[in-house]
Specification:
Layout: H1 2-29, E1 32-37, H2 45-55, E2 58-63, H3 66-76, E3 84-88, H4 90-98, E4 102-103, H5 108-113, E5 126-138, E6 162-163, H6 170-183, H7 185-197, H8 207-215, E7 221-225, H9 226-234, H10 238-246, E8 247-250, E9 262-271, H11 277-287, H12 290-300, E10 303-304, H13 313-317, H14 329-333, H15 335-344
Parallel strand pairs: 1-2, 1-3, 6-7
Antiparallel strand pairs: 3-9, 4-9, 5-7, 5-8, 5-9, 5-10
Helix pairs in contact: 6-7, 6-15, 7-15, 8-10, 9-10
The chain binds fe (iii) ion.
Fe (iii) ion binds at residues 88, 225.
Length: 348
């Protein structure tokens, strides 16, 4: 009996020691950050794995369509498990801010890293990567000296020659929102009305489809985000290579005093009811390290937001350009008016 007592005492002591050893580990591994991402898993998962390996902070990732995820955060309210919301387009980030599902990020280090125009004016979101929405043209049927600005695409010389995707697409809405800011509502309406007259076909498909349509001879000019072209240019598939051989990149609005190419972003914010706020800030800081920024640049052919981090070789080959440095908060603020103008002008 005495022996059993001794064994029990030893077992208790051992398990207590075990518990004490285990406890810091448990606290450590209970560090977590929960992410709702409108970006595809392949575009974020390797970065999150690096983050976990370097910090010990675990993560849970839910991916889905931007508007659906935003609705989900809204419906979940205070009970939302989401700490970080990642999406594309400043217009959508602004929707999240307006829906009151975000809170100010409040990180001095982030503010010192990300250029001011790529952050929400009230600190509710920041950019993680950049893309330019520029002009793509047929090498066979268009000479670069025929082009100059977005505005010039409304001229009759382009009648029946433009491929653009639908007005329901946030990328085009944000382009129009930037025009409203630069040239005013009335001029923007006139511009969109004339632009629509120049469409080669009713809007359909995504950005890559517009570039492909130029290559296939269905139109001479398209507007698309740079990473779609970058992906084709970096692809080893022969068909993709043929497309980029036929289609060139033109940077509009470059003249002295002009505003530059329309630039938009992917970005992120911290949710209003984040349970792991500190880890959320640490994740955002991690996504802005030169290492993470280069990864974005290489894998998705996007431009880094941190000055000094180089773009991919593929994007470097497209040449440098002057970018519109309008504060991107404006794109969200002008979104509703942009949609109204597009409707009025008959942009389907
Ligand atoms: Fe896209």
């Amino acid at each position: 009996m005495k022996e059993i007592d001794q064994t029990l005492k030893l077992a208790c002591a051992t398990s207590l020691t075990f518990l004490f050893i285990l406890m810091p580990t448990l606290t450590y591994s209970s560090e977590v950050v929960n992410i709702y991402s409108a970006r595809k898993e392949a575009l974020i998962l390797p970065l999150l794995e690096n983050f976990r390996d370097q910090t010990g902070i675990q993560f849970n990732l839910i991916t889905g369509k931007a508007d659906g995820l935003l609705k989900r955060i809204e419906l979940e309210g205070k009970a939302t498990p989401a700490d970080v919301f990642i999406t594309v387009d400043a217009g959508r980030l602004q929707r999240a801010k307006k829906a009151e599902v975000l809170q100010p990020i409040n990180s001095k280090s982030i503010n010192s890293l990300v250029p001011e125009h790529l952050r929400d004016i009230d600190d509710f979101w920041i950019a993680l990567s950049k893309r330019a929405r520029t002009i793509f043209y047929s090498h066979d049927r268009v000479s670069p000296d025929e082009m100059s600005t977005y505005e010039q695409l409304a001229e009759p010389a382009w009648r029946g020659r433009l491929c653009l995707r639908s007005s329901g697409n946030i990328y085009n809405q944000s382009l129009v929102a930037s025009m409203i800011e630069s040239v005013g509502s009335d001029e923007t309406l006139e511009w969109v009305k004339k632009l629509v007259l120049n469409f080669a076909r009713p809007p359909s498909g995504g950005d890559t489809d517009q570039i492909k349509a130029v290559a296939a001879g269905q139109c001479d000019i398209a507007l698309a985000n740079t990473y779609y072209y970058g992906r084709l240019a970096a692809s080893t598939k022969e068909d993709d290579q043929k497309i980029t051989e036929k289609v060139g990149v033109f940077w509009p609005n470059q003249a002295e005093g002009n505003r530059g190419v329309h630039v938009n972003v992917s970005g992120a914010g911290i949710t209003a009811h984040a349970k792991n706020r500190n880890n959320a800030v640490r994740l955002l800081e991690f996504l802005l390290t030169p290492e993470s920024q280069s990864w974005y640049a290489e894998v998705n052919q996007e431009y880094p937001v941190i000055p000094g981090v180089p773009a991919s070789e593929t994007l470097e080959r497209l040449g440098s350009f002057k970018a519109d440095e309008l504060n991107l908060t404006v794109l969200g603020v002008n979104n509703l008016e942009a949609v109204e103008i597009m409707d009025k002008a008959g942009w389907k």
